[in-house]
Specification:
InterPro entries (chains A, B, C, D, E): CorA_cytoplasmic_dom, CorA_TM1_TM2, Mg/Co-transport_prot_CorA, MgTranspt_CorA/ZnTranspt_ZntB
CATH topology of the largest domain in chain A: Beta Polymerase, domain 2
Strand order of the largest sheet of chain A: 2-1-3-7-6-5-4
Largest interface: B-C, 67 and 64 residues
CATH superfamily of the largest domain in chain A: CorA soluble domain-like
Oligomer: homopentamer
Function (chains A, B, C, D, E): Mediates influx of magnesium ions.
CATH class of the largest domain in chain A: Alpha Beta
Family (chains A, B, C, D, E): Belongs to the CorA metal ion transporter (MIT) (TC 1.A.35) family.
Distance between the termini of chain A: 69 Å
Shape of chain A: rod-shaped
Subcellular location (chains A, B, C, D, E): Cell membrane; Membrane
Helix content of chain A: 40-55%
CATH architecture of the largest domain in chain A: 2-Layer Sandwich
Region (Disordered) (chains A, B, C, D, E): 1-46
Largest sheet of chain A: 7 strands, mixed
Chain lengths: 393, 393, 393, 393, 393
């Protein structure tokens, strides 16, 4: 099947560039939803039109096509081969009637569908009465603006399908699609609950490169603190990354809780054979939390170092000021002393011998110079003993 | 029915303008209640007279009227149509006999009624023996004085009614009243327990715009820190908003606990069909807590930034002082040196050739100027190498 | 019955004036008790002699008298009317034989009696085998020295009596005594367990005026921070109040736990009809804790503000120093330059035209003045642009 | 029986003087034990030789003797009167064969004996299969070096004996020995489990004088902060005491947990009649923890005060500098101005009337003096308005 | 059997020298594993080739040999004596086919084998269905770069063997190997589960020397703070060690949880006779955590001390500046005053008697000198009273 031409990617790209603006928009959307009937489906005006991707597979093979705008054809394709499993991947929510058809066809609860569209949910799992699952994962990315951009992946599982929703055309799931395309992959041979696990796992594992990027940036900041030309905005940057690390921790915590809850679900909802993999997943979540914790500690230490260094630099400035002032202010006094105009004679020819007789001594000036040098030497010795002359570096 | 003329709104408005004064009044009221018999009903002297609003509804329609001052008519209206459900909304407590009649007619416990009147309760739920509920919610508002103003909404549920109390004429429930006015709304078709849920949900959702307002203000503060003319009171403002965020967290925590307790109640008290909505509510409470936590982190970072920036500005002041002093104090010494009056002759015609011979050299002055320039250049080079000449911005 | 003359109140008053000294005495008493046989009764040497107050009541009436020094008469009075309930209120422990007779008559355990006399117990509840209760409450007061003075109220309940012990003649229970004197009060009609509840409740409610006093003082401190003449000891005072708030929290926590434990006791120990009131009490304890928490936050913010303000004031001092020094030090150099004595002629009639020719120019001085003014103007402009000239207030 | 001469006390005294050195030795001992077979008994080379004390008692009397070096005689004495209870008190571990004989005779587990010798165990309780107990308590002392010196007391209970081990000749148990010597004491009449309780209780109660000493020292530090001649090392001392308080808290926590565990033991291991006393003990542990917590808070406040005071002193230094500099630097400029040598005539008889005509005015100097005084007055007024002239004290 | 020549140790040594680089490599490896099929075995390119060590033992003796590169011979040797127990120690993972053969021969789960190769697992225990255990321990070392270098030890237990994996040729297990070589050691006589315990115990005990090294370093830092020539990088070092201590705590926590979990395992997985040793181990883990906590407290105090000392040094610098400036700036003003050129006569012979008559007084200069000395004395007295003249040391 020939995939239809994809809609232009620009609007989506614009949106993901600015997580702060996105959060502000979410905040506003949140406000407008106050008092709404629960289960009311609303789509943000800037939501891109949905693209539909279908991967229809069994142990033998995998057919793959984009059905954007051709939902009826998609349904027909799926129904034509009822014995095959499939993954229907919906990206973008900008078409409410289509969303409602999907909800009806797949028998989804309006409250859950509302959670899909209001894409600021924490990671969680909910079980339908018929043991189908509704899973929410969050895909986190460390952007160039030092922000954590996180998108929601909503997963519905059924007996022979997995249905995923995301509000963006871009995601981190290609690695999984490739595994599905490979002949004899486990993914193709196992039940669709295993595909749901694999999706959860890929998203969770994706926290590692995100955290690695954060970790690299933290090391960069560390280097920056002791660099010669420290920037004033460094602390701002340190605190921004701290915010990111805290955010990551807040994203991973619910992931861990979600997996713990999956492990407690009855075997009808999640087969024991799949749970063994979720257990592995659980370890990963714990490790990711550990990493986030240690990043947080590192950043706190960085902030402490920054502030101490700031104070250190002030110290050094003060030392220079103090040394120079302490040396030259007394000298200035002395030379000022001999700049006074006390008269040696009173203008009427009477000598006033006590008025600055030094000025009339043949060696007055050389002796004074020697005294000045001795004063400087004494002071330098004092400062050297205090350790103020040696640089702190 | 023609609603009676509402009492003038002014006193109520005055009260809500000053949450601090309100809190002081509460503190005083609290003090006066010490040692009172439990269940003693006391009304604050400044309580506005109660207004009574009735919404009498069933799936077919909704009759709405204000019965302020006409409680008997209200009772008659309700009893005339016993098969319809109704919401009786009492605003203002300034009429103790009426309150006591309500207590008697609706069979409310004095301790609970005391909780209604002493409107500083945490969100909570209590169950009557006959499975009626007593719910307390708190409606929070971010005022122009940067305070969180929170009013209590007390909800009693019965088999076919919901009875609400609030001490103020203004509230955030109009959005719900509108939903009740709409034909075919779920609210009309479902049991009154669903209306109680909807009230709880609206109040909880109302935390979002409140938090959004706080969030916007935090971003304003963030901009303020790096602005050119930083105000000294900025930290005071940061800490005040921190107080608000902490207060919001303290308000939402009991809301979450309340909903968790509702979810654990037996189905006779809260039908399973309504619990599914409370579960959604629970997620919202968690998200609101999450938001409050991240605001708190942001504000702590802001305060750190403020203090570091303060120290930075001091650093800059010190650098200017140090550079200027370090350059000019030694120069002043040198020029002071040549301002000394050591005499080249002793007044009796004897030359004292060692006394400041420089002053008599043809190039004395130009050479000195060159020396001064060299000293300045040397110092500037030293400061430039230290990075003190480049601005930190 | 004519109450016997009360012992002079002075010693008791002296003791309550100085909680710090009291604590030191407690510390010493504690030390001396190390290794003592458990249940050893020791009375502090400064304990005032006990006064005995009896309130003998039933639904019909209440007889009240002081039996200080007449314990046998008291016993006779109680035994004469066995069908009436009574409250025996012992204030002051300075008479060990009397204490031991009370212990024997009321069948109290030595360990509990030891807890009564060592009056530094946390709030707690203990149950006798015969379902009598031993309750400890602490009555807290905010003194003029900014300390929390807390006295212990020990309550023993019996089938038809309540026996209370306190080491002081003053307490906060008069409000309850008045309720007992009122005809038809619930207190008289209900079992003595209700009186025990009422005592617990009054003491707990008494935390509110104490906290209100602390709260008022905190607001006073807040005003003090921005006042013109800030005192250096302000932080000391802030931290002392913080200590008080922490102390209050530590006092209320066990009260809450005590009430929670009472609620878990079997109905034989505490009738369900009384428990409903303890539940109300529990809410109050939670609210008091909430209040203490928010006071603690406020005080932390105050301390931060104080320190930032301290740094701000230093900043301002530095700015004044920097501006004045930066302006006048260079000027001083320049005028020093032209105070040098380089000679225009060498004393032998030879002109040295390069030595300070400016001094001989007709407009030398006016031009220099203009240059000085320009330098000042340039500096002022620089400082103005930096925002250093505008006050931070 | 004549007690054998005690070994010289000097080495023991030396060891307890230096808890830091002791801890270093422990650290090293710990390192050497890595990889050892569990249950390996090793004795530190500096362990003093064991002294054996026996108290053989029943309700009638108490025989007491030291059997140091005469273990066989001790065994004989005990076996001669099997119906009496006894307390065998071993102090010092410097004789491994003796330790091993004890282990064998009293049927002690090697792992527990290892815990006795490696005397850095936390307080704990272990139960043998035959319901005998192994208890570890820690005796804490506040030394003159501001350190917490804590020694381990290991207690083994048996049907009719208590066996205690300590590595030191000095302890805090004499108060208990005296109680055992007193005729008719409860200690003699009750089972040996009660003696074990009494030991535990005495050690726990001994935390109170230790904490009182710490508390007194904290108050001393408080006074030191506002003293005129504050020492620079004060913060070091504050932080050292903080360390002690934290250490005390860490010592008491396991004591509390130990007692809580004892209370949960079956009655065969600890009779109910003894548990009632442990419950009292539990309250003491909680109070000791409370005390430690409040000390910790006090110390944190002290450290804050110290730092604020430090900053305050700097502030004052800066103010003095600023006031003096601000007053005199401008004055110096002005007098420098009139120290310039601009010539009133050009040396060739031409008047240069614009060059410093002020110098030739009859009132030039007096007017200048007035101007200088006015400048000083203006500045003083400015500083007075800023509040810089009033001392902060 | 002659052990084959070991591969050159250099590469391994290089790797362990730089834990930071190692962590970066791990981070990258982690990133590359995202989306991989779970259970995928990947070996890092720099992994050293595996060396195989076999210890074949029973109560009678212990045969020991290296089988590097001769895995088949190893299998034969083991199978030849099926009644003996053995420990197979694999060091280095650089040979994937061998790893896969081991996995197959010992029936290991791919997910667990993946945990072995991705050697950044937390300490944990997993139980196979057949009650075999998979244990992960981490061996920590305090390196010369002030980093904690931790290597993973993976332990598989079987009915009569223990199989260990580590990625490095060096370890801390030699002490255990020596115990196994000793005749009649418990290790040889007990089941292989006891050997697994012994391995766990040795690794856990190894934390003590590591912590002792950290503790020694902390004391060194403490000395450094008060040393005369404090280095600016000291805080950096303090914070690095803090990071290490936090890391140690994070390493020991899972060890403790692992042992707690082992204690909860059924007796079929871990015999009760071995559990008694694990209980001892648990105490050690708690103690190690305690130590880590107290180190953390010490380091926080150190950082506080450092910052306070920094501020103290600034204080001292400021005092020197202030004293010298305050003394000499006023003096300079006075001598400047008498350096002014106000003319005593107007050049035309008219006397201007008010212009600086002091200059013409016979004792002008001596009196001025006295005045200057008095000013200095007054200032010194003022500074002495302020306590600024005495050093703070």
């Amino acid at each position: 099947m020939a995939p239809s031409a994809p809609p232009p990617a620009a609007p989506a790209a614009e949106r993901t560039d600015a997580p702060a603006a996105e959060r502000a928009a979410e905040r506003q959307a949140r406000t407008q939803r106050v008092g709404q009937k629960p289960g009311t489906l609303t789509v943000r005006p800037d939501a891109p039109p949905p693209r539909l991707f279908l991967m229809l597979y069994d142990a033998q093979g995998c057919d793959e096509a984009e059905y954007t705008g051709r939902y009826d054809e998609l349904l027909a394709a799926v129904r034509a081969q009822p014995e095959r499993r499939y993954w229907l991947d919906v990206r973008g929510y900008g078409d409410l009637p289509l969303i409602e058809r999907l909800m009806e066809n797949f028998n989804l609860h309006p409250l859950q569908m509302e959670d899909v569209l209001n894409d600021d949910q924490r990671a969680k799992v909910e079980v339908f009465d018929d043991n189908r699952l509704f899973l929410v994962s969050r895909m986190a990315e460390f952007t160039a603006d030092l922000e954590i951009d996180d998108d929601q992946l909503s997963i519905f599982t059924g007996p022979n399908y997995v249905l995923t929703f995301q509000d963006d055309y871009e995601d981190c799931l290609d690695v999984l699609r490739n595994r599905l395309r490979v002949a004899n992959s486990q993914l193709r041979q196992r039940p669709s609950a295993y595909l749901a696990y694999a999706l959860t796992d890929v998203v969770l594992d994706h926290y590692y490169p995100t955290m690695a990027a954060v970790g690299d940036y933290i090391e960069e900041l560390e280097d920056g603190i002791f660099g010669a030309r420290r920037e004033r905005r460094l602390l701002g940057r340190i605190l921004r990354v701290k915010k990111d690390v805290v955010r990551l921790r807040r994203l991973v915590y619910p992931e861990r809780d979600k997996i713990a809850e999956i492990l407690r679900l009855p075997d009808e909802a999640v087969p024991e054979a799949v749970k063994v993999y979720y257990r592995d997943c659980y370890d990963h979540a714990i490790q990711a939390l550990d990493l986030a914790e240690s990043y947080r500690d590192n950043i706190s230490s960085l902030a402490d170092l920054f502030l101490s260094d700031q104070s250190n630099r002030m110290n050094e400035v003060m030392k220079v000021l103090t040394i120079i002032s302490s040396i030259f202010i007394p000298l200035s006094f002395i030379v000022g002393l001999y700049g006074m105009n006390f008269q040696h004679d009173d203008g009427h020819g009477h000598l006033l011998p006590l008025n600055m007789p030094e000025l009339y001594k043949p060696l007055g000036y050389p002796i004074l110079l020697v005294i000045l040098v001795l004063i400087v030497a004494g002071q330098l010795y004092y400062f050297w003993r205090k350790g103020w002359l040696s640089s702190d570096d």
